[in-house]
TrEMBL record:
Organism for this UniProt entry: Leptosomus discolor (Madagascar cuckoo roller)
Transmembrane segments: 62-79, 191-212
Gene3D superfamilies per the UniProt record, alphabetical: NAD(P)-binding Rossmann-like Domain
Family: Belongs to the short-chain dehydrogenases/reductases (SDR) family.
Protein name, as recorded: BDH protein
UniProt xrefs under InterPro entries: NAD(P)-bd_dom_sf, SDR_fam
């Protein structure tokens, strides 16, 4: 494969693989954490390392699909964890690739669940049935149902204009001066990111706790 591209040039790589799920920290198995890290984080790293020689040779571009969820979590901490890790990997890679003329860009979409179908609606019954006995002793079905309803309401608010994210990816690949980060999100989502990134953690926790309590 690499020999084939060596003869025709290799100009861009888009790392877009990703899976999502819902669940509080103790509700998820170690196997699930390993699977998410393998697909969302290590999958992108494996692909990047495989094509890095060609990207350096042709001064290409590397685009990574992150998310505003890299800044905060509302019931899907496992997904947030992998996106935050991707952000840090990209920050290191972007600086290291400058001397080779390779540009690294991050796409940070907001809620596009209705466009991507990355996360199906959550079933409280299925979540409850998969909980360990220890977790069932701490939580109850009503709490799980409330959390599932909350998360499903977020999914239902997702934008259907997935072309906005695609446009950002195209710009990252073709613009003479691409951005390091493209945040493609609603104003209220950008405001939440602003609070999480710039305000003290206690403020961020208060805002997110309020959102979770509604």
């Amino acid at each position: 494969l690499l020999r084939h591209f060596s003869s025709i040039g290799f100009w861009g790589l888009v790392n877009n693989a990703g899976i999502s799920t819902f669940g509080e920290t103790g509700w998820l198995s170690m196997e699930k954490y390993e699977k998410f890290a393998d697909v969302n984080l290590l999958g992108s790293i494996r692909t990047t390392l495989a094509f890095l020689p060609l990207l350096r040779k042709y001064k290409g571009r590397i685009v990574f699909m992150s998310s505003i969820i890299a800044y905060f979590s509302l019931g899907n901490g496992i997904y947030s964890m992998t996106k935050a890790a991707i952000e840090k990997f990209c920050d290191a890679l972007r600086l290291e690739m400058k001397k080779f003329g390779v540009q690294v860009c991050i796409i940070q979409p907001g809620n596009y669940a209705r466009s991507t179908k990355i996360q199906p609606p959550v079933s409280a019954e299925e979540i409850w049935n998969e909980l360990s006995e220890e977790e069932k002793a701490v939580y109850n079905k009503e709490y799980v149902q409330e959390r599932a309803n909350f998360f499903n309401s977020i999914l239902s608010e997702g934008s259907t204009n997935g072309n906005e994210v695609v446009d950002a990816m195209v710009d990252a690949l073709t613009s003479p001066a691409p951005k390091a980060r493209y945040m493609v999100a609603k104003l209220k989502e950008k405001a939440l990111v602003f609070v999480c990134a710039l305000f003290p953690t206690v403020v961020m926790d208060s805002v997110l706790s309020y959102a979770l309590s509604k």
